[in-house]
Amino acid sequence: MRLTTERFILRPLSEDDASDRYLAWLRDPDVNRNLMVEGEKQTIDDIRAYIRAHDGETSILFGIFAKEDGELHIGTHSFRHHPRDKRATVGVMIGDRDYWGQQVPLETRAAVLDYAFGSLGCQKVEAGCFSSNYPAVYNFKKQGWTLEGVLKRHRLIDGDFVDALQFAMFRETWDSRT
Amino acid sequence: MCPALTADDVARALVGAALGVPMAQIGSDCSMFTEPAWDSLAHMRIVLEIEKRLNRSLTTEEIVAITDVKSVHDLLCA
Question: pTM to 2 decimals?
């Protein structure tokens, strides 16, 4: 399984990809405040276990690798397929700050959506973010996702309770994009 | 607000400053879907600047409504 975009390659991570660099992202407060993990407590072994928890079929942890940077690992897309419901759940993390503001989630998630709707025949893909993650909200709006629901005061971030937003992309919306 | 500036001017100026684009190049119809400089980090600067000017955090409904100059204008004038 390998997905390719103009600037990036997405391939399933192996335990060999559990690097200090990856660990540093999880321990970066500006990254982990938007994740559902206690990033500061993570270890390399935790990352390896997380990678192992993906079976490569119904759950895939894609690494995002930058072509122009010697296939440098810059982030991840988690992907879970729910075949019974023709649905998938995705989540993105761009760990390398040099790639923030570079439209990486938009470009790479498009490849993941093509895979879900094309290869797997999904009818819906779901994803979420916290209301305080303004860049993520931007990415969902820009890409045409529908806000399906709001879980109020769901997560404590920097002393404030923020909402969790649930977005969906439906097959017909993705197929009709120009 | 400077009386010489309309609310639309203020919204365009805010968006232009966040995008690093001269206000003169920001039309009233400018949006995240049409302006290449309106990326995720610029968007964050827009939201933070609105919160600063309103001196409060935006609600989720307000945050997800921000997609263009008009929505910025509406928030500043609410």
Answer: 0.93
